[in-house]
Specification:
The chain is of the alpha+beta class. It contains twelve helices and 17 strands. It folds into three domains: about 80 residues, Rossmann fold, CATH 3.40.50.20; about 60 residues, 2-Layer Sandwich (Dna Ligase, domain 1); about 180 residues, D-amino Acid Aminotransferase, Chain A, domain 1. The strands form three sheets. Strands 9, 10, 11, 12, 13, 14, 15, 16 and 17 form a nine-stranded antiparallel beta sheet that branches. A four-stranded parallel beta sheet has the order 3-2-1-4, with helices on both faces. The protein has a four-stranded antiparallel beta sheet with strand order 5-8-6-7, with helices on both faces. Strand 11 and strand 12 form a beta hairpin. Helix 1 packs across helix 10 and helix 6 crosses helix 7. The longest helix has 15 residues. The site of magnesium ion has 2 residues, from loops.
Length: about 350
């Protein structure tokens, strides 16, 4: 039986493992952490980051490698990619880890982004703020997620504080985009260069964390988004699921960031689409045909942040699907999600209100 090795054992790995089972594909995770939501459903090898022996043994046991987070040390990625094919490639990872390279890549293909300036010192930051104006956002170039590692700068007094808060180092200053809303496009590409696009998803964030996704977001910008993503996928010779987050402002798409993996804004595809993003990713990295990405009605996905809602109450909502990741509840942490699927947007949004009461 083919075995897909997953770097990381969080909720994304857990849902990848669940999607692989019916295809007759096994998964096995490698984790550097002690909390591993994937361990309920698949084998997880836990080791230290520098334990070359265990890492090599893991790579030997699997047929192909993939990951659930782009935030892994590049040296480690290079070492393991020398042992088994890794999707996404190390080259793609290097770009996706770095907000600066990511934006430079978008710009190189004339994909619009916020204005940005790389900064390292407080002097450089002060100068960059003068150029971009208020408000602007200072972000760490590496290792940011869920709004972590970023601070809004509204006035001159904020500058030194923001710099101190992020601890200096490799930073990027971005102009604040006064967007109307945010969308994401999830796509998958296989070894033959075949691409499948999901319908646009509309996303709402709270404190930098994804809160709600709605799909399909039928929008005239779907095609423009697809052209952007197809260009990036071909350039990267990409294999697997890939996501681009966009701001929509004045009816144009402004690319914010990309993720070389399955994405939180695609969780609705588990029940709301012909092929879930997790199955699609497994198909792509195992060189199987890609599946249909047709939406089934309308879906509303609600992220459970901090703690899970009452299971009975959720299961009493028609069309609601409860997903716990079995994580220890903690403030600001994604511990699960609920998806409501139905035929019409009105029905689904009517029922979605009940989640807040659960
Ligand atoms: N330049 C910007 N202008 C306006 N809002 C932004 C900007 N950058 C980030 N945000 C807001 O913060 C959220 C998280 O930022 P993002 O760059 O996507 O980092 P993360 O890796 O944490 O998801 C975005 O989805 C958006 O709501
Ligand atoms: Mg984001």
């Amino acid at each position: 039986m083919m075995i897909v090795g997953i770097l990381g054992a969080g909720q994304l790995a857990r849902m990848l493992a669940l999607a692989a089972y019916p295809l007759g594909i096994k998964t096995r995770c490698l984790s550097f952490s002690d909390e591993n939501p994937a361990k309920d459903v698949t084998q997880v090898d836990v080791c230290e980051e520098h334990d070359s022996e265990k890492i090599t043994a893991f790579a030997k046991e699997v047929d192909v490698l993939t990951l659930e987070t782009e935030n892994i040390p590049l040296d480690f990625a290079k070492k393991i990619a020398a042992l088994k094919p890794l999707y996404p490639s190390v080259e793609t990872l290097a770009i996706a880890q770095d907000r600066l390279q990511e934006k430079q890549l978008f710009r190189s293909f004339n994909i619009q982004t916020a204005e940005f300036i790389a900064v390292e010192t407080l002097e450089e930051l002060t100068l960059a703020v003068k150029t971009l104006g208020f408000p602007c956002i200072l972000k760490t170039r590496f290792y940011g997620y869920d709004g972590k590692g970023q601070v809004i700068i509204n006035c001159a007094q904020d500058i030194a504080l923001a710099f101190k808060q992020l601890g200096g180092g490799a930073l990027i200053l971005e102009s604040f985009v006064p967007f109307e809303y945010e969308v994401s496009l999830i796509a998958a590409r296989n070894l033959h260069g075949q691409i499948a696009f999901y319908p646009l998803t509309r996303n709402e964030h709270q404190n930098g964390i994804l809160h709600i996704s709605q799909a399909p977001y039928k929008h005239p910008l779907q095609e423009t988004a697809q052209i952007c993503v197809a260009t990036l996928l071909a350039h990267l010779n990409y294999i697997g699921v890939f996501t681009v987050e966009f701001f929509v402002h004045n009816n144009t798409l402004i690319a914010n960031e990309c993720a070389p993996r399955v994405h939180n804004s695609g969780h609705w595809t588990i029940e709301g689409n012909d092929t879930s993003q997790f199955e699609q990713h497994i198909r792509a990295v195992c060189n199987l045909p890609l599946g249909s990405t047709k939406a089934r009605g309308f879906s509303f996905m609600y992220n459970c942040i901090g703690q899970m809602p009452d299971r009975e109450k959720i299961l009493n909502i028609p069309g609601a699907h409860y997903h716990t990741y079995n994580k220890t509840p903690r403030l600001g942490r994604k511990v699960g999600h609920v998806t409501i699927c139905g035929e019409s947007k009105t029905d689904v949004l009517g029922l979605a209100k009940l989640i807040n009461e659960a």
